[in-house]
Amino acid sequence: MSGINLSKCVLVIGATSGIGRALALAIHKLPTKPTVIVAGRRQNRLDEILNEAKGDAEGAKTLHAIQFDASAKVEDLKKFVAETVAAYPELDTVVFSAGMQHIFDFTKPEEINLDFAAQEINLNYVSIFSLTTLFMPHLLKLGRPAFLVPISSTLAMVSAGRVPGYCASKAAVHSLSMSLKNSLKDTNVKVMEIMPPLVESELHDHQGTTPALTNIWLPLAEYTKHAMDGLQRGDFNIVVPQNQALWDKFEKERVDFDPMATGAFINKKA
Ligand SMILES: NC(=O)c1ccc[n+]([C@@H]2O[C@H](COP(=O)([O-])OP(=O)(O)OC[C@H]3O[C@@H](n4cnc5c(N)ncnc54)[C@H](OP(=O)(O)O)[C@@H]3O)[C@@H](O)[C@H]2O)c1
Q1: Strands of the 35-40 sheet, one edge to the other
Q2: Which domains does the chain have, with CATH numbers?
Q3: Looking at residue 68, what is its pLDDT?
Q4: Of 1, 78, 63, which is closest to residue 27 (Cα–Cα)?
Q5: Nearest CA, atom 7, ligand 1
Q6: How far is ligand 1, taken at its centre, from the CA of residue 20, in Å?
Q7: What atom in ligand 1 is closest to the CA of residue 19?
Q8: C-beta of 45 in contact with ligand 1 (< 6 A)
Q9: pLDDT tens digits, 55-112
Q10: Candidates 96, 131, 200, 201: which one to mutate for ligand 1, based on the most atoms within 8 Å of Cβ?
């Protein structure tokens, strides 16, 4: 067995819609029957997910929900992590799917909402950094495989002018994933970074662009199957075949580059 097939208890942060919800339900259906905890802010959505599972009495026992705001202050994140680890000592996998996207146009700087820009980088990147740090003592102590599953984006590799803050936040998540992979390489904690392309979800609803995007996005069910295949294999980077050329061009060599081994950090004349 490999990857998420080894997981006994999976927390999905940002599981009330879109990719997080679909992955949580697909993981819950794995033959290995892991416990799955869905987390997000909207209690009505969490209730819906639990209600849908009620038809299957056995399955319902392993599906749980926690209302949680990943943008909360550090003290609240600490409380959430402590309570979650106490309630679920088997927790071995955290999927970071909470995310937001804002359109910013630098040719109209007076229209750029700097509070939105700060919220975007805080949720998309800082919350992952903070929660990873806070869950790490528990994961390192488990004595068996544990997984961190950050969700970055194709936009970590290529920058789109319309969503500059989002691209920067996803590039940061990608960089963090690679740093984690390096620093945790001799431990039980492994990283599986999911890099979705444009996928059917609610991410763009508040921008009013969803109707146009429905013509070009990957259907959620199709994407979920692809992502689950990668998670089950235990892939470090999960990239759709359509974006393999981008990956090969920009990231392939970077991902296994070891700056210490090559002396890239040493500042001396040749
Ligand atoms: N769809 C795409 O095209 C695409 C492409 C590349 C990457 N991604 C990434 O995939 C991830 C999932 O996005 P999605 O496309 O599935 O969008 P989505 O349908 O809008 O889902 C976003 C999820 O994040 C949760 N969330 C938002 N703010 C939160 C907060 N403060 N605390 C906790 N949860 C929060 C939402 O739940 P609540 O509102 O209930 O809190 C929701 O469950 C994001 O990281 C996104 O950037 C998406």
Answers
A1: 63-67, 35-40, 9-13, 93-96, 146-150, 189-191
A2: 3-258 (3.40.50.720)
A3: 98
A4: 63
A5: 153
A6: 7
A7: 16
A8: yes
A9: 888 889 999 999 999 999 999 999 999 999 999 999 999 999 999 999 999 999 999 9
A10: 201
